[in-house]
Amino acid sequence: MSSSPELPGPLAALAPLLEHYGYAAVGLLVFLDNAAIPVPGQTVLILAAVYAGAGKLNLAGVIAVAVAAAFAGDCAGYLIGRSGGRALVHRFGRYVLLTPERLHRGEEFFARNGGKVVTMARFIDGLRQTNGIIAGITEMPWRGFLAFNALGAAIWTGVWAGAGYAAGDHIDQVYRESLRYQLYLLIAVGALVVALLVRHLVLPRLRR
User: Fold this and answer.
1) 146-151 long-range CB contacts below 8 Å, 24 or more apart?
2) Which terminus, N or C, of the chain has the lesser number of Cβ atoms within 10 Å?
3) For 87-96, what is each residue's pLDDT tens digit?
4) Confidence (pTM)
5) Average model confidence (pLDDT) for the chain?
6) Does position 165 have pLDDT exceeding 80, yes or no?
């Protein structure tokens, strides 16, 4: 097999884990990252793809493990949200300004846009970890969730595995660009959230 590729700091820190546990490390971290536990699942996916490009792992194996783990992680989040999330919102939601009325608005939003959210949420830190729980709390239909979850897992894995595999020795530049890209997405999502809050919470009060 080829020697290990040169890696930038954040990726190099995960290299020993991948060296020792290979596909198991990819599966575990990607699963947890999609099940509301903030671990570097996306980072280890990129690193595993770089290793595949260097001949140390099989790209098809990396993709298969990551897709399955991402899908299963989101399903776990959905079950958590569906089984106990609503009760927690009703009991503790007021402490974080999440009232039953706002939960109802969230349900209406998810009814209209849940498929898009579940499909694309993995590309945004924070939403990647929580979209399954949100889908469960808002009681998104199970069949629809499974379909969009599978689609999102495949797209997300394909994008980052493809980027890591193609990057090779240029992984440092690709990794930095991906962080910038995620920052832009986070800013855009933040602006959208603020706009929705103003529209649904502030404007109705001003009209009254």
Assistant:
1) 146/75, 147/115, 148/114, 148/115, 148/118, 148/119, 149/71, 149/74, 149/75, 149/78, 149/118, 150/71, 151/119
2) C
3) 766 665 555 4
4) 0.73
5) 78
6) yes
Q: How far apart are CA 127 and CA 56, in angstroms?
A: 31
Number of residues that this document lists for the chain: 208
Q: Which two tokens stand for residue 79?
A: 């079950």
Please tell me the distance from the alpha carbon of residue 72 to that of residue 153, in angstroms, as a whole number: 9
Q: How far apart are CA 119 and CA 158, in angstroms?
A: 13
CA 81/CA 89 separation, integer angstroms:
10
Distances (CA, A) of 103 to 51, 88, 89, 167, 168: 43, 12, 8, 42, 45
5 or 156, higher pLDDT: 156
Contact indicator for 69, 27 with CB cutoff of 8 Å? yes
Q: Rounded to an integer, what distance in angstroms lies between the CA atom of residue 109 and that of residue 81? A: 16
Q: What phi and psi, each to the nearest 5 degrees, are found at residue 187?
A: -65, -45
Phi, psi of 100 (to 5 degrees): -55, -35
End-to-end C-alpha distance for the chain, whole angstroms: 70
pLDDT of residue 84: 77
pLDDT (tens digit, 9 = 90+) per residue, 27-63?
Answer: 999 999 998 888 889 889 988 988 888 788 899 999 9
